[in-house]
Amino acid sequence: MAASSEPATSVAESASGTPEYVDAVVIGSGFGGSVTAYRLAEAGRSVILMERGHAYPPGTFARTPIEFAENFWSPADELYGLFETWSFRGLEGLVSSGLGGGSLIYANVLLRKDPEWFVHDSPLPGGGYENWPIGREDLDPYYDRVERMLDATPYPYHDTPKTETFALAAKAAGHEPFRPPLAVTFTGRDGELGGYLPIEPKPYGNIHGRMRYTCALSGECDIGCNSGAKNSLDHTYVSAAAHHGADVRTLHEVRGFRPVDGMWEVRYRRHRPNEGPPVEGTVRAARVVLGAGTFGSTYLLLKNRASLPGLSPALGSRFSGNGDLLGFLMGAKEQIDKVARARRITGSRGPVITSAIRIGDRVDGDGSAGRGYYVQEAGYPGFLNWMIETAQLKSVVSRSTRVALRMLANRLSMRGESNISGDLANVLGRTALSTSSLPVLGMGRDVPDGKMYLDRGRLAVDWTTTTSIDYFAAMRETMSKFAEELGAKYVDNPLWWAKRVITVHPLGGAPMGRNHFEGVVDEWGGVFGHPGLSVVDGAAMPGPVGPNPSLTIAAFADRAADHALEQWPKSRRRRRRTDATQPATGASQPTGGMSPMDANAAEQPGPGGPSGNGAVATSVAFTEQMKGFFVLGQGEPRSAAQDARVRDERMMFELTITAPDIDEFVSGDAHEGTASGYLESDALGGRLEVERGWFNLFVLAGHEEDRLMKYRLWLTTEGGSPVTFVGYKEVRDDPGFDLWEDTTTLFVQVLDGHVPPGTDVAATGLLDPDDPSVLGAGVLRIKPLDFAEQMTTFTTTGPGGAQAIARFGGLFLGKLWSTYGRLARAEDA
Ligand SMILES: Cc1cc2nc3c(=O)[nH]c(=O)nc-3n(C[C@H](O)[C@H](O)[C@H](O)COP(=O)(O)OP(=O)(O)OC[C@H]3O[C@@H](n4cnc5c(N)ncnc54)[C@H](O)[C@@H]3O)c2cc1C
Ligand code: SF4
């Protein structure tokens, strides 16, 4: 359900038509982002908080089936809802998209990470270590602060069946149950405990401008709290940030960022559901803080690698699902008068989680073995009871039929019984299944050996349960014991049958570490080698938190904000201005990296247009696809390609090479044509369209058969960084060289900025491998079959016809044309 109103502080950046400069852009309004936005704004910094999702004031969360069906985040499908679901190898992931991030759909549990679980140099299967550069003592003051801000309090009621049942089972199984602090308001203005009581407004106001009411025990915390009882981030940190002047913008999805002139330029897309196509924009800031969550922040870093030279090789590493496992205790029983009856657990009453147990870990040093974990009872919304019951539809139908027949008989016999409540109750049956069943959620120290990367521009995660299988076995045993104590049946969630898990606590991808090799960010979230850029969310966790992670993420962000404020130059306070000299919106063309020559570069002639002398020109074009390996951070193509092959870092392009005027092409010195199409490289963020491309075929002086084919493509990464792809093939017909190999091998570099033609130092167009402008290098090839296919793509326009192709081909391929040219000519005929 779309929110009825977006925050009042939201400013349409296009209204002024000018770009903005602020102290900090914070990306994402979850636990990392909203804490940071508040702390920076409170300290007097100008802050823009960009959140891709809607705002959800109390009362606007989806409840009907049609609202639920539309409640997913997938702008490509015109869906702008609350839930974002991911499916990867070995696991599924569920996160939120909305103002307040995960707090909108989380279960309110705020637990501190166990002191011993901040492990150091803990070896991982397959190499590497889990290492936390911070300890519990570093976070404790911040844990205190966040708990105060979120009014964390244990569940106060003592007559809630699921809480009491969980405690009973835990004790019977030999564990000590406890009630974790919850970020929920249970007491009204005058301190009275009860549901639906007005909540005392905060001194910093509320960004939604709506009244909030105390917890109604509806069990709907995971689908959004319509009463406003959850102390979610929109009601707390985001409201406080707005109070201190932060500019909170919903439906603003950040696409990328890059350093420009000592600042950061952030590119974003403003979604306009039901209004029109999205609007693109940029804003510049001294600091960019990534709080887009584990999936969001790691994805943005992977997408923008080309703009961030020297980014740590640890990017994408240490992924973990925080050991999440969902199980079910089905059909619990109790003895009443020596008769086993369905136990009334009523999992839908009360907040989703009210109690927990903790199982020790071998690192605790108290004799515990294995990897530690928590198990919590997990309630669910009341209306799910109806779904559970209607899943038993067959028996409902037969019960309905029986009752209908009885009512009919009643009518026919004129018995005239008007009270049919008993009959209707029969239709509903005893609803034993929903009443006596309870989901349980386990989480803890699984093995953080997952890897996040881009696969054809899309986020991929490789993580499986294999290395954590003992951990999950122990957890399932604990859950089964609970079931046993309650006379219930333990049932795995169906994903487990395929050894898959669903995580609501994804972590890692941009882990903190002691240095550039161990982590992407330092202990304060600062990205190594990129001052002013930081990651403050779940992505920065170098391993599982263990208990529910949001409190640790928030405390980490709070500590990072302290550090950022200490480091901030004193002169740079509350800087916010606009500059009318540059456009703010629209598909803005980045200027950084372009030389003045760019602006003056002559427009390329289109194919088949008038030639220089006014006669109609004959054009020739063909399409070429090449594939190979490319890696950032290296300059020498051959060794870079070897390295890229090991890392499986691929690159390909599909280009249409056009000689717009075959006469000019053949007779000119540079034999210049144009190149259009696209290039795909996950190192550069996925698929990039060629904005402008040049192709040259040089016949080397005095060597009719020796030629050099040169490619130059201007591209722009998603973060707005202009880059230039340069490549060359050498073709020599000397007996010592392999003509085929020469013709099909393209040596490649990608350079910073849009480097214009005519500025080459070397004939090949490539720079010295150590030149700082070289972002990466590699080698692309074309296979014989693809080459044969390429020959069939030759087309021509204008009066020259097949002859033009022959002239082009002869120059293009020399001796090889006599072999392959037949294919081109055959197609043309
Ligand atoms: C059902 C459920 C129950 C949970 N229960 C608990 C619990 O009880 N206790 C607990 O500690 N944790 C719980 N969690 C986990 C908790 O919600 C997450 O650990 C936490 O929200 C992660 O915080 P974060 O700051 O890393 O990211 P998030 O809170 O996920 O915030 C990221 C934000 O960034 C936005 N974003 C992403 N990409 C972009 C972009 N490109 N541009 C702009 N904005 C962007 C997203 O929309 C989102 O709002 C639960 C999660 C779920 C799904
Ligand atoms: S139980 Fe219901 S009212 Fe209480 S916090 Fe959860 S969703 Fe809100």
Summarize the structure.
Its EC number is 1.1.3.6, 5.3.3.1. The protein is of the alpha+beta class and 829 residues long. The protein is 24% helix and 25% strand.
Write structural notes for this entry.
The structure is a single chain. The protein has 829 residues and is an alpha+beta fold. It folds into three domains: 20-108 and 111-149 and 221-321 and 448-463 and 500-567, FAD/NAD(P)-binding domain (3-Layer(bba) Sandwich), CATH 3.50.50.60; 153-182 and 324-445 and 466-492, Cholesterol Oxidase, domain 2 (2-Layer Sandwich); 596-828, no CATH class. Helix content is 24%, strand content 25%. It contains 19 helices and 36 strands. Strands 1, 2, 11, 12, 13, 14, 25 and 26 form an eight-stranded mixed beta sheet that branches. Strands 27-28-29-31-32-33-34-35 form an eight-stranded antiparallel β-barrel. It has a five-stranded antiparallel beta sheet with strand order 18-19-20-15-23. A hairpin with a 2-residue loop joins strand 5 (83-88) and strand 6. Helix 1 (31-42) packs parallel to helix 5, helix 4 crosses helix 11 (469-485) and helix 17 packs across helix 19 (816-828). The longest helix is centred in the middle third of the chain and has 20 residues, at 393-412. The two termini are 59 Å apart. Mean pLDDT is 85; it is low at 8-15 and 579-612. Flavin-adenine dinucleotide binds at residues 27-33, 50-53, 94-98, 101-102, 105-109, 222, 253-254, 291-294, 296, 300, 353, 504-505, 537-538, 548-551, 553. Pathway: Steroid metabolism; cholesterol degradation. Residues 565-616 are annotated as: Disordered.
